């Protein structure tokens, strides 16, 4: 660890010392001064920041919640490194959770919701054509596409309940971190947007939550496959494909699938029936077969 680069004004007794440590380490990670896999010591950090271990510990917790570091034994942490497999898992989780979140909105979408969805689609289609203003920011079109797609997901998932929305936001935040870290290495994949959005617009006008969920699953899968293969051209995203098939079937109401790694011991297959209940809840019945 290159501790000589960690000079800061954070000190013992400062109410903002934890935030100061957090911001400085975070800035160094995104500046490439702390590389993937590099170990950090609480003791050394406290010495270099001229503060106690308490603020350092809290700063590291914030970084860990953000997905930038991972804890190890002996009170040490390490800057995270991401593989194609890690990216695939995050994308698979997003596809499945977003699909079910949109499905939970069945019967709850309003005319105002539809209008908001259409505006989000308009923005994506404008960016997909390679146009659109810079919104006053020095931001590349790939980043604007990512933000526009996230806004679309936000409105589509708005009726899924606070905890589900938080879960999806956490996954999206983690994916944004992954993308930013790969951008530092000069290998960030492009953010493609293909032409499934006319179908999404039609489904929104019908307020058809099942169709919207399945279209979004396909869109997430398309973006994710290209990103994973861009990072590792010989990698096969089989897990992602399995989750996509499962998500499409689950939002339609019934799914039959192989039992993963003995999750239901003694049975080879299971049937999962999912239906929406009042109050943004889902009923999931698993039957061995």
From TrEMBL:
Top-level taxon: Bacteria
Domain HTH gntR-type residues, every copy: 15-82
Keywords tagged on the record: DNA-binding, Transcription, Transcription regulation
Chain coiled-coil ranges: none
Any one Gene Ontology molecular-function term assigned to this protein's record: DNA-binding transcription factor activity
Protein name: GntR family transcriptional regulator
């Amino acid at each position: 660890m290159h501790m000589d680069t960690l000079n800061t004004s954070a000190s013992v007794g400062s109410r903002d010392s934890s935030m100061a440590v957090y911001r400085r380490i975070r800035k160094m990670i995104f500046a490439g001064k702390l590389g993937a896999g590099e170990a950090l010591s609480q003791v050394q950090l406290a010495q270099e920041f001229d503060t106690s271990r308490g603020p350092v510990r809290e700063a590291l917790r914030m970084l860990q919640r953000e997905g930038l570091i991972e804890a190890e034994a002996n009170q040490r942490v390490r800057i995270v490194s991401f593989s194609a497999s890690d990216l695939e898992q995050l994308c698979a989780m997003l596809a499945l959770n977003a699909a079910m979140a949109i499905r939970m909105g069945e019967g709850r979408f309003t005319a105002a919701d539809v209008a908001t969805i259409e505006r989000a689609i308009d923005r994506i289609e404008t960016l997909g054509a390679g146009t659109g203003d810079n919104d006053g920011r020095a931001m590349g079109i790939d980043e604007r596409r990512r933000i526009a797609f996230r806004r679309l997901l936000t409105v589509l998932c708005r009726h899924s309940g606070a905890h589900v929305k938080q879960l999806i936001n956490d996954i999206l935040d983690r994916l944004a971190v992954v993308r930013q870290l790969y951008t530092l290495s000069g290998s960030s994949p492009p953010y493609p947007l293909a032409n499934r959005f006319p179908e999404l617009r039609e489904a929104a006008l019908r307020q058809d939550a099942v169709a919207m969920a399945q279209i979004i699953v396909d869109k997430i899968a398309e973006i994710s496959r290209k990103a994973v293969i861009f990072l590792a051209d010989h990698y096969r995203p089989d897990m992602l494909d399995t989750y996509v098939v499962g998500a499409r079937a689950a939002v339609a109401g019934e799914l039959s699938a192989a039992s993963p790694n003995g999750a239901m011991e003694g049975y080879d297959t299971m049937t999962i029936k999912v239906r929406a209940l009042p109050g943004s809840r889902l009923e999931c019945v698993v039957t061995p077969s």
